[in-house]
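Budget justification note: compute hours in this period were largely spent on complex prediction jobs such as the one shown. Inputs:
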Amino acid sequence: MLSFTLKRIAQLIPVFIGATLLVYFLVFATPGDPIAALSGGKPMTPATEAALRAQYNLDQPFWIQYGLYLKNLVTFDLGMSFSGQPVADLLGRAFPVTARLAILALLIEGVFGIIFGVIAGMRKGKFFDSTILVASLIVIAVPTFVLGFVLQFVIGVKLEWAKPTVSGAATWSELILPAMVLGLVSLAYVIRLTRTSVIENKSADYVRTATAKGLSRNRVVRVHVLRNSLIPVVTFLGADLGSLMGGAIVTEGIFNVPGVGNLLYRAILKGETPTVVAVVGVLVIVFVLANLIVDMLYALLDPRIRYA
Amino acid sequence: MRFSHASKAVALSAALALTLSACGGGSSETPEGSGDAQAGDTSYIVSANTTEPQNGLLPANTNEVGGGRVMDLIFTGLVSYTADGKTQNELAESIETTDSQNYTIKIKSGQTFSDGSPVTAASFVDAWNFGAAAKNAQLNAYFFESIKGYDKVSAEKATEDKMEGLKVVDDTTFTVELSQPESDFPLRLGYTAFMPLPEAAFEDPKAFGEKPVGNGPYTLAEWNHDVNLKLDVNESYDGPRKAQNGGIDFKVYQSTDSAYQDLISGNLDVLDQVPPSQLASYQSDLGDRSVNSPYAGNATITIPGYLDHFKQGEEGNLRRAAISQAIDRQLIIDKVYQGGKVIAKDFTAPVIDGYSDSIPGSEVLTFNAEAAKKAWADADAISKWDADAELSIGYNVDGAGNKEYVEAVVNQLKNNLGINAVAKPYSSFKELREQVTERKMTGGFRTGWQADYPSLYNFLGALYGTGAGSNDGDYSNKEFDAKLKEGLAATDPAAGAEIFNQAQEILMKDLPAIPLWYQAVQGGWSENVSNVEFGWNGVPLYNEITGK
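Corresponding output:
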């Protein structure tokens, strides 16, 4: 298990370098001149322009730019944003907020998704099952920004149960509403995945054996059905963590959450390469680690899976 | 301050994160203001929306609204602007000149920065020299170009860092020599770039930009990046813009949509930009707590003179006149902006002193499909426009509302001129500006201007003067340049304005840009505050706002 884990973590290095190179190149290749945008279309003296280009290495060819970036990276210098702030500071502010948001969303979709999914699966074809199926279909069909605006308006403005936007501290309790919006679509998928998986395992031999042995229904469902049904669900949740962190742009925008999604969006528009690469780099690490955890959970869930 | 990214006023490239802080909105914990209720609660802390300042807060490096509105509150210059764009003396005791070229400026004595250090003549001279010097790479450096000796300090790799046109006479007096007479120089002195700096600023400008020490009606107490900027009242400030509230809490919003939700739920006091999605309903939502007032900005379309068929001269001018007359501006204003703009009648804006809505030749800005067709046909007689040729109008999709109005314009060109006009999207502002500055545009494109200071010249010189920094269409007309120079040399701004309007007559014939409409600010405020007024540049006069 240990050597497996180490091997997987070692894989991070080539994945990370490959991803940053690719992203660096993509930002480099997008059309547009960041310095022209910085001046806002106003005149700029040639001296100012030249100084700014030199400051961000924009006067260098691609390989030198990337080389300089890597060189600084080794000393944990992530570069500067166009506003003159260290990118590390930007990340340090935005990532904890987004991490809280993503974890909350993951909890919401994991806990409620599995509970609803198991109930629906065990009562296949009954009223609860049909209701859940229809409801989840609606949630999947409605775009996130519609859900977001509606929930914000109803809960934040009309009922005043919560403030419509999140404060600078972005505390756990403030993030519940945004996390619900963010997690809702995945919640629908988790329900459907769990349900299908439960239905399949319900008629498996070992479940029949367990029932025949006289085990309580509770224990049969929890230990024999659920545990074996979780593998596809855990795979989905693991992959989803990364998407929740990187793909929360819409939700963050609606609730004014100072997170990674908007940091990335703005950096791309401005052509601020160091920020884009740093954000994507961290997201890559999150993805890889989440997958590693998923793989280790397999072994816990299914004793037949072993890692040498 | 700069080209608007979005067609809507002050939307900037960066909208940033976050917000609501604990002490915002409805939580005025202060007791009833002593004295009369009319005056409102002057200890109330007002919350207002903003975008994250794009750079450290240094006067010569702040060229956008997010930083500009804060700078104007924590600093004060020689003059400031009233709501209707008039200048009023702040630190200046007098600004005297006899020839519009040599100015003697006396400042009030006994003024201090909020850290206690004195504001002297040197505070101005050093700050301006710092702003102009090449080695400091300040975005607003070109604002000092009129001052004698600017060329030497601003050249690439310049070693000199003091402009010879600036001389300190004594603690409260300095002289400014310009390289040519410019009558509107005193009008510029209220712009952010011309603010004074304390000596401490020059030791470590970068650190100073994070924690600026100014001399304005407020001090910057806290700046939580991407979250908020908290302003406290500066008790030592003694000028015309004294704070009528207990401080301002600027909340950084990523989108005006979320700010609007906070406004209508009472979690935000002042919003200076209603989102496009709410334009149809904000007046019924807010009633008398909303405003729709014009400010010093306009939207234009530039069809550059380097395009075939659009070169400066008879054919190009006819075609531009045809395009201008083919656009039914009022229809677009009503449909796209719910009436929230005002038809343009000149190249400047109505809140500026000297503005005229009846400049000879301005009928070319009025919708007239017949005249448009005729002008286009006349141009065809000179050189035939290929019926299949495409005329594109470029816009950047990252600005809210751009697509809607550019497509409306394009449709009208199609219908009224019968040409193959298309709206050409650019993925970002930086892409559009790159193509524009490299002169690679293959068609027209959206442009616009927001005044830095209230003067006709600010709208004309930088945009249409030969070789000027923002002359995106490469327009050049000797007659026009001469008029500009003449207007600048006038002994007083009023006489200058008259000449600038004569210069505009030339623009009406050449149409280096096609004016569409003047910008207007759509804003609103909560039930917690009163006395909210918007200034000549569309920015609220924050210092006058009181609690209820």
